[in-house]
Amino acid sequence: MIEVLTTTDSQKLLHQLNTLLEQESRCQPKVCGLRLIESAHDNGLRMTAQLRDFEVKDLLSLTQFFGFDTETFSLAVNLLDRFLSKMKVQPEHLGSVGLSCFYSAVKSIEEERNVPLATDLIRISQYRFTVSDLMRMEKIVLEKVCWKVKATTAFQFLQLYYSLIQENLPFERIQAQQCVELTEGIECLQKHSKINSRDLTFWQELVSKCLIEYSSNKCSKPNVQKLKWIVSGRTAQQLKHSYYRIAHLPTIPEMVP
Q: Whole-angstrom distance between the N-terminal and C-terminal Cα of the chain?
């Protein structure tokens, strides 16, 4: 399937895939650092995988609260993991690190007019550190990731894989034939991406387990429609005034008379 792609769109997608595969290793967390986190016991003094997962859930909630792109969330997690795999972060500083990663991702992915003020981001997150604290931590994070904010993420691969499959899977086929061609397509993508069968099976099982847990009633995943953020009346009023001022700035093209 992949070897015989001839359409212009398919060739463009394949070129994008090759680029991502080349860049992938340059923006991945240090495996040895992640293993230390996974093996750490929760004693309140060390970073653990559970604490990291809790912070990721907070980043997801922030992403959904502001209505940001999934790529923003994916990049924020990438920055978080890259930093945690290099630095020994105490649990009490994790919130500052996570919010710094989130802010860097927002400024990198989202349109400038949609980037919240640092003060508003801190209020919504309900942390007690200052804007100066956030800026200082953001600089530390950027230094440790060598100022390489843009990164190849799993979400980008998912988008490309899906697009390639859709581009080369005829809809007029009967269901049985589609299943055969889908399997062939996945095998070709696996071969092209140089993923061995052992690794594919290993990660397939982990993803399947995650999806089962995520779809269960016991999962506390954020719900876009039901997501609520508890803030004080004073904070809500301050946010309202902040965004009112931004919306009426004369520098915004659509607001210029």
A: 54
Contacts of 197 (CB under 8 A, 6+ apart): 190
Q: Which of 102, 138, 134 is nearest to 118 (CA)?
A: 134
Please report whether residue 186 resides in a domain. no
The CB-side HSE value for 2 (13 A sphere, CA atoms) comes to: 22
* pTM exceeds 0.70: yes
Q: What is the DSSP code (8-state) at residue 46?
A: S
pLDDT digits (tens, 9 = 90+) for 36-94: 898 888 776 789 999 999 999 999 999 999 999 999 999 999 999 999 999 999 999 99
In a domain, 231, yes or no: no
Tokens 């710094």 sit on residue: 100
Domain membership of residue 245 (yes or no) is no
Q: Which residues of 62-76 are buried (b: 16+ CB within 10 A; e: fewer)?
A: bbbbbebbebbbbbb
Contact indicator for 50, 94 with CB cutoff of 8 Å? no
Number of domains in the chain: 1
Q: 105: domain range?
A: 9-144
Asked if residue 156 belongs to a domain, the reply is: no
Cα–Cα–Cα angle for 6, 4, 166, rounded to 5 degrees: 70
Q: What is the CATH number of the domain that holds 45?
A: 1.10.472.10
- Of the candidates 84, 100, 167, 172, the one whose C-alpha atom is nearest the C-alpha of residue 139 is 100
